[in-house]
Amino acid sequence: MATGAEFKQDMPPKGGYRAFNFHRTFPKLVWSPGAVVAAIFGATAYGVYTAIESKKTDITEKFEDVDINNALEPFLTAERDRYWLKLLAKNRALEEEIMKDVPGWKTGTWYGEPVYFTLGEKWWDPSATEVYAHSWGSVEAREHLWRQHSEYAGPKFYDNWFPQSISKWFW
Amino acid sequence: MATGNRVPENFQTLSPIVKAPLSDTLSVPLSQQGRICGFFESQFYRCMEAYGAKLGRKYCDLEHRDLQECITGDKQKKRAEAISAQRRKLFLEGKLDSPFLDNHPEPGQFKTDHFQWNRIN
């Protein structure tokens, strides 16, 4: 049975408890408000300056691109026409070569009957059906794909992932 | 009613069958105006205007055929089919290594120029 000798009363430490801080406590001040406000304003001003400058640069770059394109336009058109006329001349030579044994066939006509009767000296471009008469059907399909190609038309990183028979159908 | 204005080959009429104020508006998108074949259509109608509906059937036959050819492309299709058939025939006879060319019109080289200088006539 418990006796009074075994009971020990807990007492305050020697010298008493430390003083209780009942004052309001503030976190340690790392940056002074003035510095923070100055930094924010500075960063904003720098960002605005950078944005304005980069917009000016973009506008200048666009202007240069358009300007160069305008300056090159006659040459690009001439190159386009040159390719187109060379293609038509080659098609004509091919037709001459292929159809030389067909009796009654005249190159550029349907057995001597012209495609258009009333054109005279006026030039009229042939349709894709005629232009692609010497080609595989896939070549015409590729042309349609090419017309919708993205700006980058060079080799792709996935070129070796698919066999040629499949990859020619997509970009 | 434009019963006398039938063009015989293809059940077309030179003027709208029902002539009403609204038909003038509605007949524009049915015409070839502003398209590639608008040139041939205007040539045909100019000729028909000159000769009239009756004589025009005789004297505007070529213009009419050109318009039909531009719209349907039948003669060009026949030509292309004849050429490819001949190529296949030559290939089967062993005179060609391949019936068709592999990379013949290279990509981007098919550039028709119907609308050069922004005009179609």
TrEMBL record, chain A:
InterPro entries: GRIM-19. Accessory subunit of the mitochondrial membrane respiratory chain NADH dehydrogenase (Complex I), that is believed not to be involved in catalysis. Complex I functions in the transfer of electrons from NADH to the respiratory chain. The immediate electron acceptor for the enzyme is believed to be ubiquinone. Involved in the interferon/all-trans-retinoic acid (IFN/RA) induced cell death. This apoptotic activity is inhibited by interaction with viral IRF1. Prevents the transactivation of STAT3 target genes. Its main location: mitochondrion. The lineage of its organism: Eukaryota, Metazoa, Ecdysozoa, Nematoda, Chromadorea. It comes from the Eukaryota. GO terms for cellular component: mitochondrial inner membrane; respiratory chain complex I. This is NADH dehydrogenase [ubiquinone] 1 alpha subcomplex subunit 13. Complex I is composed of 45 different subunits. Interacts with CARD15, but not with CARD4. Interacts with STAT3, but not with STAT1, STAT2 and STAT5A. Interacts with OLFM4. Pfam families: GRIM-19 (PF06212). The chain crosses the membrane at residues 30-52. It is found in: Mitochondrion inner membrane. Belongs to the complex I NDUFA13 subunit family. It is a single-pass membrane protein. Keywords: Electron transport, Membrane, Mitochondrion, Mitochondrion inner membrane, Respiratory chain, Transmembrane, Transmembrane helix, Transport.
UniProtKB/TrEMBL annotation, chain B:
The keyword Isomerase does not apply. InterPro entries: NADH_UbQ_OxRdtase_FeS-su5. It is a peripheral membrane protein. It is found in: Mitochondrion inner membrane; Mitochondrion intermembrane space. The keyword Ribosomal protein does not apply. Accessory subunit of the mitochondrial membrane respiratory chain NADH dehydrogenase (Complex I), that is believed not to be involved in catalysis. Complex I functions in the transfer of electrons from NADH to the respiratory chain. The immediate electron acceptor for the enzyme is believed to be ubiquinone. This is Complex I-15 kDa. It comes from Caenorhabditis japonica.
